Amino acid sequence: MVDHARAESAGPRSIGRAVVYGLLILVALYYLAPLFVMLATSVKSLDEIRSGSLVSLPARVSFDAWSKAWGSACTGADCSGLKGNFWNSVRFVLPAVVISSLIGAFNGYVLTLWRFRGSDALFTLLLVGCFIPFQVVLLPMAQTLGWLGLANTTTGLVFVHVVYGLAFTTLFFRNFYVSIPEEMVKAARIDGAGFFIIFWRIILPLSPPIIVVCFIWQFTQIWNDFLFGVVFSSGERQPITVALNNLVNTSTAVKEYNVDMAAAIIAAMPTLVLYVVAGKYFVRGLTAGSVKG
Amino acid sequence: MGALSIRNVVKRFGETTILKRISLEVGDGEFVILVGPSGCGKSTLLNMIAGLDTTTEGEIAIGGRVVNDLPPKDRDIAMVFQSYALYPTMNVRENILFGLRIRKTKPRQMEAALARVAKTLQMEHLLERKPSQLSGGQRQRVAMGRALARDPALFLFDEPLSNLDAKLRVDMRTEIKLLHERVGKTIVYVTHDQIEAMTLGDRIVVMKEGEIRQVGTPQQVYGDPADLFVAGFIGSPSMNFVRCRVEVRDHRPGAVLRDETGEFFVPAPPDVAGLDAMAGADVILGLRPEQITDKDPYTGSNPHLVQRTTQIEMVQPTGPDTLVIIRLNDMPVTCRVHPDTEARAGHALDLVFDVSKLVFFDPGTEKRIR
């Protein structure tokens, strides 16, 4: 009797759950489909791509397209693949991420724990920076880079991304540090620590959760950026996003879909890997913030 | 030479004056409490002593040395905060030694300081833990240990027990008092809790709205309050205030009280000379709950008793005492009777008023009439 009742009540619920799971799986498949197509296409030969279907599994797996995209694909007359541009990106993304995060941490520290007259107004102004579209700053930035003698250099590109990223990194760190009790800074001051020692020895060691968030965010933003890259760099110094675009748009006799797909995956790989490795810290860091003393 | 001198200190934020000419001398080894409601300026004063806040006017001297322009680290002070303010990423040992390390103390001295502090506070077993692994009371002990490690001339406590639950607060109160007796250091302690002030302090400084209202021993501020505010702030349950008329009967001034059965007269203590000239005027009479009690214990030994049988409005047993609310001059008045006394709301109770400690206040200025 009891079992019967339980079976009855479990019935509709498990049906409901099956519907939910089914729906979720369907959506996930739909979402993953492009990735699958890209992966599959990148390991097919051109013949197979032309004759077979878009979604079919490759008959024979070949990484020729990958090595071509990496090392010998042609953009115009230049046939050295994406590898140069990949390292270009690494070279300016890493410093830009590290510098903008450090300055953001410093800004956040000052804006929360060493408030001064007008610090809130300054923070509001910085926030506005988050909402300024890229296009608006292009011309003034080009002018500034020219004055600074940084036009068309890696340093210039780092500079652009640091300046643009500051608004976001400051926001991250400021909102994280707001929950640190001011008394901790007072205690440190009485203990004899100065402005920089407090930052370095007490505040920064508290910050790994938000540092991870800031790194991932900034890395993704800067790595994926196309507009600044295309405007403020040219030729050999171009980042991978710009090179990918050039590669795909190069009009040669045959459209090499497998090479295009491999190139696209290579361009997206660092951010993908970053999310897989550090994704859970990202979520944790976003929800963290309370530093109970 | 005093451990701490505060001379004519003023603090202003723009137009608002937070502290209005505060002067206070604290002796060596004294335990002084700054107490008052929130917004009275006590924490600001403490921050100014610490050097965390600037002084608008006046002078602060620690150990005879004027410290107005010295940063906190050079004032030879240590401070314990309400939120403990421990460094979360450091363990207890590092927390305690941080100040010494910043000052580049020799390792051997640091070890000695750590051993001394850990022994004093009995927390040798906690040294490797992080603050997050400690209970509230333990965190507070670590915060005190951090203060003790540097062996400063002056300890500042900023509401250190406010974050603890009621029972732990009582335990830590005892511990702080014992600590003071053991190390004999000068302590300035800020609290809004008058019980903490009464139980801990050698002297209590009662503050309100940026002014010192009274400075005295716990007995002085309790038994001999300077004004209406101090009288009402110190003591729990607080002092009863009854507005009444002054009359002179048998050549003695006193107050006329009225309960539901009629008027009766309570003579003022003989030393209240200021009342003689006030016959017919209104004053505020202050009497503590324990000065109105049931008949039993006073079988005629005290000459300053007035007996009265009065209707009970409400009864609140607290365990050791029972609080009985009666009504005098249309004001609720709390009396403290023995827990065994048969007291029920709506019934009459024989009460005796101990009039030897009555206090009177001017209703206009709120000052004591002496």
What report would you give on this structure?
- The complex is a heterodimer of chains A (293) and B (370).
- With 293 residues, chain A is mainly α.
- Chain A is built from 13 helices and no strands.
- Chain B is an alpha+beta fold and 370 residues long.
- Helices cover 23% and strands 35% of the residues of chain B.
- Chain B is built from 8 helices and 22 strands.
- The longest helix of chain B is centred in the middle third of the chain and has 18 residues.
- The radius of gyration of chain B is 25 Å and the shape is elongated.
- At the A-B interface, helix 8 and helix 9 of A face strand 6 and helix 2 of B.
Write the layout of secondary structure elements.
The complex is a heterodimer of chains A (293) and B (370).
Chain A: H1 2-42, H2 46-51, H3 64-71, H4 83-113, H5 119-130, H6 134-148, H7 154-177, H8 182-191, H9 195-203, H10 208-224, H11 227-232, H12 240-249, H13 257-287
Helix pairs in contact in A: 1-13, 3-13, 4-7, 4-10, 5-7, 7-10, 10-13, 12-13
Chain B: E1 4-13, E2 16-26, E3 31-35, H1 42-50, E4 57-62, E5 65-66, E6 77-80, H2 92-102, H3 107-120, H4 136-149, E7 154-158, H5 166-183, E8 186-191, H6 194-200, E9 203-208, E10 211-216, H7 218-223, H8 228-233, E11 240-249, E12 252-259, E13 262-267, E14 282-287, E15 292-294, E16 305-311, E17 314-317, E18 322-328, E19 331-337, E20 348-354, E21 359-361, E22 368-369
Helix pairs in contact in B: 2-4, 3-4
What sort of overall outline of chain B do the alpha carbons produce when their principal axes are compared? elongated
Q: Overall mean pLDDT score of chain B?
A: 92
Order of helices and strands of chain A: HHHHHHHHHHHHH
Report the oligomer: heterodimer
Quickly count the helices of chain A: 13
The most extensive contact between chains is:
A-B, 19 and 29 residues
Spans of at least 5 consecutive residues with low confidence of chain A:
289-293
Mean pLDDT of chain A: 88
Q: Approximately how much helix is present in the residues of chain A?
A: over 70%
What is the count of helical runs of chain B?
8
* Gap between N and C termini of chain A: 55 Å
Sheet with most strands of chain A? none
Shape of chain A: globular
How many distinct beta strands of chain B? Answer: 22
Query: Major sheet of chain B: size, sense and barrel closure?
Result: 6 strands, mixed
Proportion of residues in extended strands of chain B: 35-45%
What order do the helices and strands of chain B follow? Answer: EEEHEEEHHHEHEHEEHHEEEEEEEEEEEE
Q: Roughly how much helix do the residues of chain B carry, as a percent range?
A: 10-25%
Structural class of chain A: mainly alpha
* Strand coverage percent of chain A: under 5%
> How far is the N terminus from the C terminus of chain B?
33 Å
